[in-house]
Design brief:
Elements: E1 12-19, H1 23-34, E2 39-43, E3 56-57, H2 59-67, H3 71-77, E4 82-88, E5 96-99, H4 105-111, E6 117-118, H5 121-134, E7 139-143, E8 146-152, E9 159-165, E10 168-179, H6 186-190, E11 195-211, E12 222-227, E13 234-238, E14 244-251, H7 264-275, E15 282-297, E16 301-302, E17 305-307, E18 313-314, H8 322-342, H9 351-367, H10 377-385, E19 408-411, E20 414-417, H11 435-442
Parallel strand pairs: 1-2, 1-10, 2-7, 4-12, 10-17
Antiparallel strand pairs: 3-6, 4-5, 8-9, 9-10, 11-14, 11-15, 12-13, 13-14, 15-18, 16-17, 19-20
Helix pairs in contact: 1-5, 1-8, 8-9
């Protein structure tokens, strides 16, 4: 219980207030600080997520993390896995392997320096938080602090926010606010942005548990295993190389089923029946109820307030797009907020955030409600590298608004991808006859 201590005279003033310490909020904070602005990040929970809600890190997001020198850390925290789904009545039966329509290794090698990683969200969040702390004195991260009030000030003066923490009430003045506080976003609610429900495939219950399933699954395991036995239908998800798994199944709270009905003994009995793990030790870590649905906010910006991740567009897990879309949001928004806060760019630059990311978020949310089975392989590649932005910040040109192409080059004696050259600065790449461009850059 928080106390009611009056605010201290040292209430916070900051360029950007980020609400929510999930992947999209952490990414927005990192992008902002890397480009020279100050950030206060508040999270109502006492720490990072304990439940690995997502596991797939797609190639374009791996490129973003690579540009921050985090790619190797993410790969080290990832687990080997077969990027396909196994469908079987029971784990003891081989079943069939189904493609997840992800880009193939040979396709990726030609267009990107990065690959897909299977890194559970809780591990990825730790990597991002460590990076944010390492960026220095312009960052302040406070867990156990909840946003309760948010007032947009007149004359483009930013916002005044009230945050309640263990030591009482704190008033924060910020130029901008980033709502990264999930599908039930308090930020979105406080500024009156409505949400559109796109559809739902039911209520689900995820069980996080530890068990040695090495005799029942392939090595390395499939990233997903669909169990189809009647009464035991569910999805087994690999979430770590330390024998940690999620078993997810549909339940019916709208028909009177209660979370309390799922006692530890009942959960273990269901797990044993579904996996065939009959005698060995099985530890239940926790339960996570969630809605297999998609929704979008009608706006991703209202004045100085911006939405990223699930606060802006919630997807189903299908296609591994939700966390990745949120990270791309934060990466896109952070540098723009920093440049405007520092006076490097005019405020009109901020219009480009919703113009660029809004259509992507809506398209990914809608696509996540449709099965990807049967789509051509090139569709998966286009998802990561075929996005074409159109916004007021982008000029004319054949490739304007697209991701820069990957090619291996030599930079100061080392091998690098062109993708590595774009973080933290304006970059011009020319051919050997680009003397005019080199002269312009020098001037």
């Amino acid at each position: 219980m928080f106390d009611n201590t009056p605010p201290s005279p040292t209430d916070h003033e900051v360029d950007v207030l980020v609400v929510g310490a999930g992947p999209s909020g952490l990414t927005a904070a990192i992008s902002t600080v890397r480009h020279g602005a100050s950030v206060l990040l508040v999270e109502k929970h006492a720490g990072l997520a304990q439940f690995p809600k997502a596991t797939g890190v797609r190639p374009r997001v791996m490129e973003i993390l690579r540009s921050w020198d985090l790619e190797q850390a993410v790969l080290a925290a990832s687990q080997p896995a077969r990027l396909a789904m196994r469908v079987t009545p029971a784990l003891r039966i081989p079943g069939a392997e189904v493609s997840l329509q992800l880009p193939e290794e040979s396709q990726l090698r030609a267009v990107s320096p990065s690959r897909i990683a299977v890194c559970p969200q809780d591990r990825l969040e730790r990597i991002l938080l460590d990076q944010l702390h390492a960026l220095g004195s312009t960052t302040d991260v406070r867990f156990g602090h909840e946003l309760t009030e948010l007032d947009v000030l007149p004359a483009d003066a930013g916002v005044r926010a009230t945050v309640i923490g263990p030591r009482g009430r704190m008033t924060v003045r910020a130029r901008f606010v980033v709502g990264a506080d999930g599908a039930r976003s308090r930020v979105r609610e406080l500024v009156g942005i409505e949400r559109i429900e796109l559809g739902s495939e039911g209520d689900h219950l995820g069980v996080l548990f530890r068990a040695d399933l090495s005799g029942l699954v392939a090595q390395p395991p499939h990233v997903l295993t669909m169990i189809t036995a009647p009464g035991l239908e569910g999805m087994l998800v690999a979430t770590g190389d330390d024998n940690r798994w999620i078993y997810d199944f549909e339940w019916r709270p709208n028909e009177g089923e209660r979370l309390a009905d799922w006692t530890r003994d009942q959960v273990i009995a269901r797990l044993r029946a579904a996996t065939g793990h009959e005698k060995q030790r099985l530890d239940v870590i926790g339960l996570f109820p969630w809605d297999f649905g998609a929704s979008v906010a009608v706006q991703q910006r209202r004045g100085p307030v911006f939405l990223v991740g699930d606060a802006a567009h919630r997807t189903t897990p299908r296609g591994a797009t939700g966390m990745n879309t949120g990270i791309a949001d934060g990466h896109n928004l952070g540098w723009k907020l920093a440049w405007v806060a520092r006076g490097i760019a005019g405020s009109e630059l901020l219009d480009s955030y919703e113009q660029e990311r809004g259509p992507v978020g809506r398209a990914n949310a809608e696509a996540s409600l449709v099965s990807g089975v049967g789509r051509p392989p090139e569709t998966a590649l286009a998802h990561d590298f075929g996005v074409q932005y159109e916004s007021s910040a982008i000029g004319d040109g054949r490739h304007a608004g697209s991701r820069a192409p990957h090619a291996w080059v030599r930079v100061e004696g080392r091998r690098a991808s062109t993708i590595d050259l774009f973080d933290g600065r304006l970059t011009v790449i020319t051919g050997p006859e680009g003397d005019v461009w080199r002269t312009a850059c020098e001037e």
